[in-house]
Design brief:
Oligomer: heterodimer
Largest sheet of chain A: 2 strands, antiparallel
Radius of gyration of chain B: 22 Å
Number of helices of chain B: 22
Strand content of chain A: under 5%
Helix content of chain A: over 70%
Structural class of chain B: mainly alpha
Strand order of the largest sheet of chain A: 1-2
Shape of chain A: elongated
Number of strands of chain A: 2
Distance between the termini of chain A: 25 Å
Structural class of chain A: mainly alpha
Shape of chain B: globular
Order of helices and strands of chain A: HHHHEEH
Order of helices and strands of chain B: HHHHHHHHHHHHHHHHHHHHHH
Number of domains of chain A: 1
Largest sheet of chain B: none
Distance between the termini of chain B: 47 Å
């Protein structure tokens, strides 16, 4: 994978990680303030929920690139050469289909939410487009990783002399 | 063929081959759901809209926040040396009795289980820490690796357990109740494993010789090292049980406590916190995709009413509740041989829950049973992940030894599984207090 893309996937995963650390800090601060003052901090629920979207969707591309996704590996762990490449092609195509559909649906929803200025109801109102925007960005990142996997495994599949 | 049955078959025809050919479980479940909805309604739109809707709902779910927090908690606890301190304490207190080092291993696994939800991580960590000690004292190799592989499974029963959280989500139960429901069964399992080791080593003393003797002073000196561990357990379990905070809050506070203790003891730095968080978010991203796929698939099942038909079909067989229980146990054991825990739960829970409701079983009790079955799946070849976790760290041990070493523990699990059927109230004492 080109270094720039790999760096982007890594950076996104790190932003997701920092978002998780921030969730831990915000929720703990809320607990402490609630104990000391008897009042909860407004908007913790909404902000933490938004940060969870960041923590889950931004690392998707890195997860796919590192092949950390959970799968049944009865066959894939035993497959070698072209068989392994064929299974990777299947994995990539199925992933591209699902995340492509998600990107398409989310992008259209993002535009609607952005144009309409929709906001999530809560103690503090967060723009819906922001939440969906992270889903769009995360889906695009995993599509990049899946596209790379597809090209790589198709090349391995075509390579002459690769044992089946 | 009715549309309900036809769409269910179409869904499985897409989902199962993809799943077994190694496609991401979440992707296979989502595709199965979308195809099923299309086969039922003749439209692609509802399935695709549901994919987006579930992605938004699941990824911004406050309840599901416990998953990445519990994962980062386990990683940080391990990095901050809590596991090593626990083993040192158990080793000094129990090492002298027959099978004592193996008992110390189980005790440490149970302790580790109460701060991490990952059984593979526990098994891998304990292979590194305990196996050299077990070998040093000439323990039987099969007993040693069986102890470690099965001790690791305690992590999915004793809270904070990601498996318990996933069950609660899939079965639409309270996460807090489900988490505390695992405490007593987890302790019973720990006790069962300890009894097994003691009986084994008293019948065959050469398999588990006595370890070194420690003075009372040395034993007492090992206790301060486990105080941080006790703080965390109190933060997670007692906090939820007493209603001081929610599961999410307990997880967040525990993460911050472990990080602070690690900083104070100079065992971790900010870099290790970020690294643990990155590991947690990549793992969680994968788990969340499974939850999204499973929710989509559940929506499809609810839409076509097939799970109600399946329930009616099984109820028409007029099996006694006990026979039904045996049937479910057998099905889960067979499926557990081939499927990984989260995928097995994501696929089966939406189908099984209507049956549980029809028989009148308590869903919290059933959750404990399911998680116990998942423990069995973790040590059942050929897919049992814990067996491979031990093998990955101890490359010189044969898989055959790990399988055979796990077998006696597997039977202990089975005995306890049927004890829970006979005495279901054991699993419900703590949840009923909430």
């Amino acid at each position: 994978m080109p270094k720039v893309l790999l760096a982007l996937l890594r950076l996104s995963a790190s932003v997701g990680a920092l978002s998780l650390v921030a969730i831990g800090l915000i929720v703990t601060a809320d607990v402490l303030i609630r104990w000391t003052t008897g009042k909860p901090v407004s908007g913790v629920f909404e902000v933490a929920s938004l940060m969870l979207v960041v923590a889950i969707f931004l690392p998707l591309g890195f997860m796919q690139h590192e092949k950390l996704h959970i799968r049944v590996d009865i066959f894939s762990s035993r497959a070698r050469g072209r068989w392994a490449a064929a299974l990777d092609v299947l994995d990539a195509v199925a992933g591209i289909l699902v995340f492509g559909l998600l990107l398409w649906a989310a992008a259209s929803e993002f535009l609607t939410a952005y144009r309409g200025g929709f906001r999530l109801r809560g103690i503090i109102e967060i723009p819906t487009a922001l939440q969906i925007g992270f889903i769009v960005f995360g889906s695009a990142l995993i599509l990049v990783a899946l596209g790379y996997l597809l090209v790589k495994s198709l090349r391995a599949l075509r390579r002459p002399g690769t044992p089946p | 063929m009715s549309p309900a049955v036809w769409s269910l078959l179409a869904s499985f025809a897409v989902m199962l081959p993809l799943m077994f050919l190694g496609v991401h479980i979440g992707v296979a479940l989502a595709l199965g759901g979308i195809v099923g909805i299309y086969a039922f309604t003749g439209l692609w739109g509802p399935g695709i809209s549901m994919l987006l809707l579930q992605s938004i709902d699941v990824a911004s779910s406050y309840t599901l926040m416990v998953i990445p927090l519990f994962i980062v908690l386990g990683t940080l606890a391990s990095a901050s040396g809590i596991t090593t301190d626990l083993f040192a304490m158990f080793y000094r207190w129990f090492g002298r009795v027959r099978g004592g080092v193996a008992i110390a291993t189980i005790g440490t696994c149970a302790g580790m289980a109460s701060i991490t939800g990952s059984s593979v991580a526990t098994s891998a960590a304990m292979t590194r820490i305990a196996l050299p000690e077990l070998r040093r004292f000439g323990y039987n190799e099969r007993l040693s690796v069986g102890t470690i592989a099965n001790g690791g499974t305690l992590s999915i029963m004793i809270p904070p357990s990601i498996t318990l959280v996933l069950y609660a989500i899939f079965a639409e139960q309270s996460v807090g109740k489900m988490l505390v429901a695992g405490v007593i069964p987890g302790l019973i399992l720990t006790l069962g494993f300890i009894v097994l080791i003691s009986v084994h080593c008293n019948i065959r003393p050469q398999d588990g010789p006595r370890g070194p003797a420690f003075s009372w002073k040395e034993r007492v000196q090992s206790l301060p090292g486990v105080l941080p561990f006790l703080f965390i357990v109190a933060a997670v379990i007692v906090g939820i049980l007493t209603g001081v905070w929610t599961p999410v809050e307990s997880a967040a506070v525990a993460v911050i406590l472990v990080a602070l203790m690690g900083f104070m003891r100079r065992r971790i730095d900010f870099g290790s916190v970020v690294s643990a968080a990155r590991e947690a978010v990549t793992t969680s991203a994968s788990v969340f995709m499974i939850v999204i796929g499973s929710m989509l698939f559940s929506n499809f099942l609810a839409m076509n009413g097939a799970s109600a038909d399946i329930t009616d079909g099984i109820m028409a067989l007029q099996l006694s509740p006990f026979m039904l229980y045996v049937l479910l146990v057998l099905i889960y054991i067979v499926l557990g041989m081939f499927m990984e825990v989260s995928s097995l739960m994501a696929l089966t829970i939406p189908l099984v829950m209507p049956l549980v409701a029809a028989v009148g079983w308590n869903p919290i009790w059933f959750g404990v049973v399911i998680v116990l079955l998942m423990e069995l799946a973790m040590v059942t070849p050929p897919v049992g992940l814990n067996l491979y976790a031990v093998k990955a760290v101890a490359a010189d041990v044969s898989l055959n030894d790990i399988y055979l070493g796990s077998l006696p523990f597997w039977f202990v699990n089975m005995v306890i599984l049927f004890l829970f059927y006979a005495f279901p109230q054991v699993t419900l004492i703590l949840p009923n207090m909430l």
